[in-house]
Amino acid sequence: MRNHRPLCSLEFFPPKTAEGIAKLRAARREFAKLAPAFCSVTYGAGGSTREGTLATVLEIRAEGMEGAPHVSCIGSTRQGIRDVLAEYRGHGIRHVIALRGDLPSGSADVGDFRYANELVRFIRDESGDWFHIDVAAYPEFHPQSRHPQDDIASFERKIAAGADSAITQYFFNADAYWHFVDACASRGIDVPIVPGIMPISSFTKLARFSDACGAEIPRWIRRRLEGFGDDVASIRAFGLDVVTRMCASLLERGAPGLHFYTLNQSALTATIWRGLGLDAVATVDKAREVAGK
User: pLDDT tens digits for the chain (293 residues)?
Assistant: First the structure.
């Protein structure tokens, strides 16, 4: 394991019920012990969770962690995004995740932006260097991409527009990630590209998510998960082993960090995090910080 701390972070979504809010607060209490680099919070289609996104980010900051809200542009106007950015700046937020996003259900109006690179350029034009901007990357290619080269070119446009770093869609084939990183390097793209990680808690949910976002479940993993049937304990044990081994391999080969899609639950992510020794690295870093004061 490295002697410096990889950039490991978490993703949450804004809860819609009082029970969901309480559960996420409890999960964050566990995550705070791990000292993540930051916690991102998703932004619903067309800005449908705008208030919940900001409220969750502000709670995260009050708990001593950095909060990074998502901003998605499809279905939004330039003035609407301008207002969101001004609101974030007013709260001293310095980190955003800029995404194209999805249209709200039943809507046909794409708004003033078509692609994420347009949003990134708009943020830079409006806010200069105020925000650190993360964008999405797709090692197994965006489900709407016609050709792999189109996908790489799309990513390159986001970086050229002013993005600082990227977080990938989750994957279970590490080779896909390294092929993507190498393809980017061949084009002179040298920003950090952080692997997105999805803990496995349910085969049914994983298959549904993966079909929707284009993430491949390798045949050997799919067949093993199918073979467990309704045995939740075996699914989770197998998933923990597969995902932890993949994460360890990614870090050993030089990935700049890991970004966990937590689904607002702490148990599996925290187990993987500790299994990788990331909590111990965080403790050493904190001690060094205190000693340096």
Answer: 344 578 999 999 999 999 999 999 999 999 999 999 999 999 876 556 778 999 999 999 999 999 999 999 888 899 999 999 999 999 999 999 999 987 665 555 678 999 999 999 999 999 999 999 999 999 998 777 777 788 899 999 999 999 999 999 999 999 999 999 999 999 999 999 999 999 999 999 999 999 988 899 999 999 999 999 999 999 999 999 999 999 999 999 999 999 999 999 999 999 999 999 997 655 445 434 434 55
What is the length of the chain? 293
Q: Domain-by-domain residue ranges, the chain?
A: 7-291
Measured distance CA(35)–CA(281) in Å, rounded:
10
Its sign, for the CA torsion 23, 25, 29, 35, is positive
Paired strand residues for 134: 97, 165
**Quick check: is 11 catalytic?**
yes
Q: Which residues contact 30 (CB under 8 A, 6 or more apart)?
A: 266, 270
pTM summary value: 0.91
Cα 79 to its chain centre, rounded Å, is 26
Give the three-class secondary structure for 68. strand
Catalytic one among 11, 66, 216, 289?
A: 11
Closest CA to 155 of 178, 125, 185: 185
Residue with tokens 């900001």: 54
Q: How far, in Å, CA of 61 to CA of 240, rounded?
A: 29
Q: Right CATH number for 7-291 from 3.40.50.720, 3.20.20.220, 3.30.300.30, 3.40.50.1820?
A: 3.20.20.220
Point out which residues pair with 70 in neighbouring strands.
97
Cβ proximity of 269 and 10 under 8 Å: yes
Asked if residues 75 and 104 have their Cβ atoms less than 8 Å apart, the reply is yes
Of 196, 126, 101, 116, nearest to 157 by C-alpha is 116
